[in-house]
Amino acid sequence: MPVFAGMYAQSANSGATQSLNLAMNDIIEIAIVNGNTLNMGFSSVNDYANGVVSAEQELVVKSNNRFNVRVKARTSRFSYSGASSDPKMSSSKLSVKVTANNTGGVISSGHTNYKSLSTGGQSMISNAAAGGNKTFKVQYKATPGYTYPAGVYTVDVVYTATQS
């Protein structure tokens, strides 16, 4: 009978290891919960004398890093649609303030009260915490006074969230 030298049986257990890498990028998103159009009406002498305040507008930021929020008017003047020639209303006739802050960040100086918009942009919230549902609310106040004719005045307000 032949002799088989050096033969071994394989173990009944076996294993394999695989390394898995998650290639994650920095992400950030800001959105206006209430929608992208807000209408503010002037219908009384009191509205023209004291200005009109909007309902609260909620914004949400999703970021995997700490972040800052800035606000600005896209243009230095409102666009105008109406029967008169263009009255050239400055975007500074619109002010904004933060009314609620659930971002974990700090409301920047001046934005706890109404602060006029400009095209240069202003810090609104700084050093906010990372997370998937960081919200804050703002209100607008429009104070054009009596010097502008009837019509529809439009300006885009731009919010920018950047990671810090």
Task: Explain what you see.
There is one protein chain. With 164 residues, this protein is mainly β. The chain has one helix at 45-50, and strands spanning 28-32, 52-53, 57-63, 67-73, 79-81, 94-102, 106-107, 115-116, 122-128, 131-142, 152-154, 157-163. The chain has a single domain, classed as Sandwich (Immunoglobulin-like), CATH 2.60.40. The protein has one helix and twelve strands; from the N terminus they run βαβββββββββββ. Strands 1, 2, 3, 6, 8 and 10 form a six-stranded antiparallel beta sheet that branches. It is rod-shaped, with a radius of gyration of 28 Å. The termini are far apart.
Q: With helices defined by DSSP (H or I, 4 residues minimum), what is the helix count?
A: 1
Secondary structure class reads: mainly beta
User: Ends: how far apart?
Assistant: 79 Å
* Outline: rod-shaped
List the topology elements.
Blueprint lengths: L27 E5 L12 H6 L1 E2 L3 E7 L3 E7 L5 E3 L12 E9 L3 E2 L7 E2 L5 E7 L2 E12 L9 E3 L2 E7 L1
Antiparallel strand pairs: 1-3, 2-10, 3-10, 4-9, 4-12, 5-11, 6-8, 6-10, 7-9
